[in-house]
Amino acid sequence: MKTLILVALAITLCFTPAWAEFPERPITILVGFGPGGTIDLITRALATKASGILNQQVIVENRGGGGGSVALGVVAAAKPDGYTLCTMQNASIVDTALLQKVPYRPLASFTPILAFAASDHSALLVAKDAPWRTMKEFVDFAKQNPGKIKYGTSGVGTGMHVAMEMLAKQEKINWVHIPYKTSVDVRTAALGKHIDAVSSGTDWVPFVKSGDLRVLGTHGAKRCPQSPDVPTFKEMGYLYVSEILHCAVGPAGMPADVVAKLEAAFTKAMESTEFNTVRDNVFLSPAYMSGKDYAQSLKERWAKMEEIYKEIGLIKEPATQPY
Questions:
Q1: How far from the centroid of its chain's Cα atoms is residue 52's Cα?
Q2: Domain presence at residue 161
Q3: What pLDDT, in 10s, does the model give residues 234-265?
Q4: Among 292, 248, 295, which Cα is nearest to 270's?
Q5: Residue 144 maps to which CATH number?
Q6: Among the listed ranges 16-20, 56-60, 195-199, 309-313, which one has the minimum average pLDDT value?
Q7: Cα-flanking dihedrals φ and ψ of residue 106, to 5°?
Q8: Is there a contact between 303 and 88 (Cβ–Cβ < 8 Å)?
Q9: Across all residues in the chain, what is the average pLDDT?
């Protein structure tokens, strides 16, 4: 009898399929903004190298809209198996949800995987032939002409939107925000005189060097190396300082071993020459944060930004609850 049991067990083991090791099929990363922008380009560089490391294709799909909330909504509702991810800014996860209702809980609906770059030197720009040569001239005009200035960003609730609204509250300015799907669209609108100013991500530098745009102020804690003569918002007495981190997240409840494998693959991809070349070409700064540390940083950002927004009158209460 004992022999029969052992034989049966052996047969069972032989014909029972082993669980496939993750990943056994392609992974999709949704980019929360349109093609051609900073986060789109850096995500594609990350995905290309990660594909080889994971031995599976990592597909990048643009899903713009709502300052990143459209893509985040899709990922929040996805199966937490590691095959649907999203690259995003911390401001899109936190600030957008503070300012407007979103279909997920920003601090509960996601599994942070890692942060892989920082946008230190975003900026405020105008066309080369705009009448304002300094931030003071621009701000004075906006204050004296309520509702006349139209500025563009790549979405509601992005860091660039937040920077302008914090400036508006501080200086008591009434101006019009025009959100676009991509940074390319915003620049095109400015060059075509459809808007008066661009609150831009870090990919503005070539357009200032070519003379097409003029930079009035940058958002970093220190001056931008590519435009060292341009003062920061902080130097000029404005509250906004960029602390934007680009990250990868998945749905809440992902298995720890899957998260660890993705984090390791993306971290390895960050070491590649190709990734670093793209990062430098779009003027992002090196940055890394583990999934665990990034989750903590999102909680800290929520508390900090909620307090700031209430203090300057942008909100009375968060538009979306964090949990």
A1: 24
A2: yes
A3: 999 998 999 999 999 999 999 999 999 999 99
A4: 248
A5: 3.40.190.10
A6: 16-20
A7: -60, -30
A8: no
A9: 91
